[in-house]
Amino acid sequence: MLRLSTVVLCNLLILIFTINFTYGASVMSIDLGSEWMKIAVVSPGVPMEIVLNKESKRKTPSVISFRDNTRVFGEDAQTLGVRFPANSFAYLLDLIGKTIDNPMVELYRKRFPYYDIVEDADRRTIVFKSGDETYSIEELIAQMLQKAKEFAQDSTGQPISECVIIVPGYFGQAERAALFSAGRLANLKILQLINDYTAVGLNYGIFRRKEINETAQYFIFYDMGASKTTASVISYQLIKDKTTLEKLPVVEVLGVGYDRTLGGLEMQIRLRDYLGKKFNEMKKTKTDVFTNPRAMAKLFKEAGRLKNVLSANTEHHAQIEGLLDEQDFRLMVTRDEFEKLCSDLFDRVAVPLEKALSASGLALENINQVILFGGGTRVPKVQEVLKNLIQQDLGKNLNADEAACMGAVYRAADLTTGFKVKKVLIKDAVLFPLEVVFEREGDSGKKRRVRRTLFNHMNTYPQKKVITFNKNVDDFTFDVNYAELDFLYNKDEIQRLGSLNLTKIKLTEVAKKFEIVKENCESKGIKVHFALDDSGILNLANVELVVEKTVTKEDEDENESTLSKLGNTITNLFGGGSSDKDKDKEKENEETDESKKESESENSSSEQQATNDTKTVNETSSGDNEAAKNKTEKPKIVTIKEKIPSDVTVVYVTPLDGDAFDKSVDKLKALEKSEAEIVRKQTALNALESFVIDASTKIDEDEYKECATSEEVENIKKACNEVSEWLYEDGIDADAQTYENKLNELQTLTNEVYAKHWEHNERPEALKALKSMINGSEMFYNSAKNLTKDQNPEKDVFKQTEIDNLEKVIKETKQWRDTEIEEQNKLSKNEPVRLTVKAITDKMALLDREVKYLVNKLKSWKPKVKPTPPPKPEKDNKTQENETKTDEQQNTEETIEVQEEKPDANENNDDNQSEQVDDDSDNILPTKPLDADQVAENHSEL
Known about the structure:
This protein is of the alpha+beta class. The protein has four domains: 315 residues, Nucleotidyltransferase, domain 5; 83 residues, Actin, Chain A, domain 4; 121 residues, Substrate Binding Domain Of DNAk, Chain A, domain 1 (Sandwich), CATH 2.60.34; 200 residues, Substrate Binding Domain Of Dnak, Chain:A, Domain 2 (Up-down Bundle), CATH 1.20.1270.10. 46% of the residues lie in helices and 21% in strands. The protein contains 29 helices and 29 strands. The strands form seven sheets. Strands 1, 2, 3, 4, 11 and 12 form a six-stranded mixed β-sheet that branches. The chain has a six-stranded mixed β-sheet with strand order 18-13-14-15-19-22. α23 packs across α25 and α24 packs antiparallel against α25. The radius of gyration is 43 Å and the shape is extended. One of its GO terms (molecular function) is ATP binding. This is Hypoxia up-regulated protein 1. It is found in: Endoplasmic reticulum lumen.
């Protein structure tokens, strides 16, 4: 059993590590703005980078259009939207998570009157009608997320399934939940929804990490985008992490101010309406330009171009060809006129910054710098207002378009398992406070509503909170709502937030759970645990009844469950086991820690409870002295937790789930299938048209005509003419399969002619390669035949049969080549080919195999090792006496010793003879021992 468990555990660990390395390859961030979409990726070996779209641009318009079952995105959708504005959807982010009665929906209708917006009867959200089809906001945004995923995968060449999405900081619970639904529809795992200013602050911090120290530094990031404006106060500071004891940089959001309707879009709308009014005043047509959707779309596009130009120029001409009833429009517009149109908007520019400072509790003197980002900050008047307010230069050292996207992709790399990044802690801030509301019976018997704050304005998150209910002993219900919103600008902004009531939570089986509160038990109440995650979404984590029970050691022994025993066994198995004394101490420590945690949680809630009633007493160990044994053992207090079932009902907006979600999935799959079929049809049509033109041209050329019979030429021409006429008449509406079948028929007719042409064209090169191989093989043969035992005993690399076999293959190949060339030359080009390129390459492969066999044998050959001569005998006494010879006698003996080395000299003579043989063989082999690598290299070059 132990062996089986170990094997299973090992297999599980291997699976986990495989998943981490396999699916953590690439990750992306998506800045899904109202006007533009930016994507950044991190992949192995590639640093953080912005993804280019199909037009090789770094940002893509957030537009999707439908026309004749065709779906297009980006610039193509913008172009189509000018002609068919009602079928082109943009600026959708302001509508996600909104019900039909939200003021933002009414503002959207006013800005774009040509859209047909209706209510979803089941969810009370809005849907766009386009012909017979309807599209929810989640479905449209999901399709944009799919396109972003496609761009990212094309850029990295790897599948991507995880992302971080940037959202406006003022998004509430409804908007954030709806974005998660859109991510599920797009088959994307959203690691986190990160606020735009938090992403920018992170990006600013990671590239200035060395400048962050123990002293807090404060910056204001001012962002004016297409549809909104935000200002955020962010601090940077090094703080020691309690777990790792390492000093880490912390990016903390201290204050936020925003205006969700102030941005470049509103300025563009003002310009559009101004240009339309001027065109009507020219009275070029009796038709009111504001009643024509196509003309309004043209005016909107020109207003956007004009706004951008006036940021760099003091005046510019607005001009549109064929605006309405084929009438052109041209008007000079100055920057002063533009600023006058938007004067009330510029009065609101400073408000978000002031609100952010007020929320942070800091003065402007404490701020290091005000840094701009967002396309709207390029408007000169916006910069002028801000500069007059802060009385210092504005920071412009951030990429206004890409800063948020780059910060978010760094966060994505940190969250995924495939990358390791330098840790940066993030502390975001709660923009809209949250509270729990429930009813309690008062002293008079009447029920009263009680409010308990969960998260205050500007509380940091992610964070967990606990609410304790002490007096409820039966099933009850409570609500989670937005709390006091007095800090918001006006009542309109509160209405734009949507429903203030978020969820209704019902607890069941409460009375049943209280049955465990018997003798020696004390209830500590029902504890409801909430978690505000790093995406800013509030979740109900757990609901439990907490009871403290006084038990003796005898009770513990009797009531020890089978499950506890099994748990102890597993702990001993993998943890090495511990003594009873150690176990008791560990258990006491765990209970003490739990008591501390409960105390902290209760202090953080509005209904604080004293935890000093619970006393933990150390047990007497078995090794104590007799006096300690005689002491009375005090009772032990244990904490019992019983989970209470809960039912959460979302009130703010019905989420896209269940059957509605499945229907949306089917709709998107049908769109993808239809789109794939359209692509297939277009590809097949293009391929057929190209082939017809190509075949018609080639069959008239002499080099192809020579390879075909007159009948084949006639059939090909006839077939091409018939297909060409069919394409421009009945075949214009054919499906992809029909085009593919027509192409296959033409290819069947032309394949044989094209094959003959190819054979005659490629044969000379193939014969040239064969000749080169034969020459090389002959040169190798001339060298190798001298490396047999008969020719060179000292270098007997090959057997004579191997050399003879190579000679035979060379002769047979030459003979085959000459015969086949002669026979092929007797045939005309339009007759079946006798000497094919494949036959030539087969012969080359046979010859090459024979030579390579000998080359490999040559590489592995080693010269024979000479036997070591026996050692000389030791000198005896007589020999030592004879060593008293004269110097001349010694010289004579030395000469004799030299003469005794003649066997070596003879070997040198043999080598000289070998050199002579080598000279007779055209110097192919070297005079020194053969270098196998050099011979093999020479053969390869040949």
